[in-house]
Amino acid sequence: MRRREFIGLVSGAAAAWPMIARAQQSGRTRRIGVLFALAEDDRTAQARLAAFRGELQKLGWADITMDTRYVASNDPETHQRYAKELVALQPDLLLAQNTDTTKALLQQTRTIPIIFTIVADPVGEGFVASFRRPGGIT
């Protein structure tokens, strides 16, 4: 191989490296822990999870594993047990379905991002500092 050909090969590989790195990142399986306060066979729960998965796929999270726990009762011990199980799986993020499930997850982790829905007063509950600048947990 001549010197010019070698330099061209190395330069081309260096220019392509960022694209290769992005392709590898987007190809990894993302793990999401889900804690729902609904029964597993609830149609609303299934529809919400399907919509969530679809929106994540639009954002490039094509390969997703969802570890889902359902708490059909209002039992705080069950919430805590399932929250602990989900956090132990080291997911990329957590999804909480209401105030009780959000509280349970926040008691188990402060490092894994938590997305929550159906929370009437996230500021009053201490889940976010403010609506304008959530900035994490207070």
Summarize the structure.
With about 140 residues, the protein is α/β, with parallel strands linked by helices. It is built from four helices and four strands.
Note the main attributes of this structure.
Rossmann fold; alpha/beta; 138 residues; 4-stranded parallel sheet
Account of the protein in words:
- The chain has helices at residues 3-26, 43-58, 76-88, 99-108, and strands at 30-36, 64-70, 93-96, 114-116.
- The protein has 138 residues and is α/β, with parallel strands linked by helices.
- A four-stranded parallel sheet has the order 2-1-3-4, sandwiched between helices.
- Helix 3 packs across helix 4.
- It is globular, with a radius of gyration of 21 Å.
- The N and C termini lie far apart (61 Å).
Total of DSSP H or I helical runs spanning 4+ residues = 4
Please report which band the strand proportion falls in: under 5%, 5-15%, 15-25%, 25-35%, 35-45% or over 45%: 15-25%
SSE succession: HEHEHEHE
If you compute it from the alpha carbons, what radius of gyration comes out, rounded to the nearest whole angstrom?
Answer: 21 Å
CATH class of the domain at 29-116: Alpha Beta
Secondary-structure map:
Blueprint: H1 3-26, E1 30-36, H2 43-58, E2 64-70, H3 76-88, E3 93-96, H4 99-108, E4 114-116
Parallel strand pairs: 1-2, 1-3, 3-4
Helix pairs in contact: 3-4
